[in-house]
Amino acid sequence: MHTTVIEGVLRGRELRYAVDAVVVLAGIPGAGESTFLRRVFADSPVRVYDSAHIRERWMPVLGVLPYALWRPLVHLIYYVTLLSSMRRGQGPMVIHDCATRPWARRLIGWRARRAGVPLHLILLDVPGDVARSGQWARGRVVRAGSMETHCRRWPDVVSQAERDPGSVVPGALSAVVLSRGEANRVERVTFA
């Protein structure tokens, strides 16, 4: 496991952060982020933001249309919701974001600075073929061109995060880079 930890602390099978921290969980589509969120935060009071939740909420209404038509609406609602929820004194928050879109990383970093909350990164680093297998297993496959873009950008994201987490998401204090196997061994993410 290659980690850069400044304030976030990795101890055995537990990651620890400040009580009001915002943690961005990132990886290319299919890397296992949603699975990690469900497993680690299933019974947790931590606020977890995943665009899949928005998609599921709108599926009964818009599911008759191809997802490509309403994907922009899902992303708009997702980012508006998480940005408006990021406030000091609201407790910890975990954000699922692929981290391959520079505009989204800057937006999250900007909002965390404005809110005055510490920001940390957990990056699930899996090869593109493993991520594609993960997509097939869950029945949601990202378009080939989009996946190629994520896979092309991802190694630079990981490399930058290892050197300087703040160069990935402005203001990020730490980055923990995990393989899928290492991520599977994490039992808890605590905020205290």
> Under the CATH scheme, which architecture would be assigned?
3-Layer(aba) Sandwich
Number of strands: 9
Q: Helical proportion?
A: 40-55%
N/C terminus separation: 24 Å
CATH class: Alpha Beta
Q: Let me know the largest β-sheet.
A: 6 strands, mixed
Topology order in helix (H) and strand (E) letters: EEEEHEHHEHEHHEHE
Q: Low-confidence parts, pLDDT < 50 over ≥5 residues? A: 1-9
Structural class: alpha/beta
How is the secondary structure organized here?
Layout (H helix, E strand, L loop, with lengths): L1 E3 L4 E3 L2 E4 L4 E5 L6 H8 L6 E3 L1 H12 L4 H19 L7 E4 L5 H14 L3 E6 L3 H11 L5 H20 L8 E7 L1 H6 L2 E4 L1
Parallel strand pairs: 3-9, 4-6, 4-7, 5-6, 7-8
Antiparallel strand pairs: 1-8, 2-3
Summary of the model, kept short:
The chain is of the alpha/beta class and 192 residues long. It contains seven helices and nine strands. The chain has helices spanning 33-40, 51-62, 67-85, 102-115, 128-138, 144-163, 180-185, and strands spanning 2-4, 9-11, 14-17, 22-26, 47-49, 93-96, 119-124, 172-178, 188-191.
Can you tell me about this structure?
A 6-stranded mixed beta sheet has the order 1-8-7-4-6-5, with helices on both faces. Strands 2-3-9 form a 3-stranded mixed beta sheet, with no helix packed on it. 47% of the residues lie in helices and 20% in strands. The protein has a single domain (2-49, 90-191), classed as P-loop containing nucleotide triphosphate hydrolases (Rossmann fold, 3-Layer(aba) Sandwich). It is globular, with a radius of gyration of 16 Å. By secondary structure, it is an alpha/beta fold.
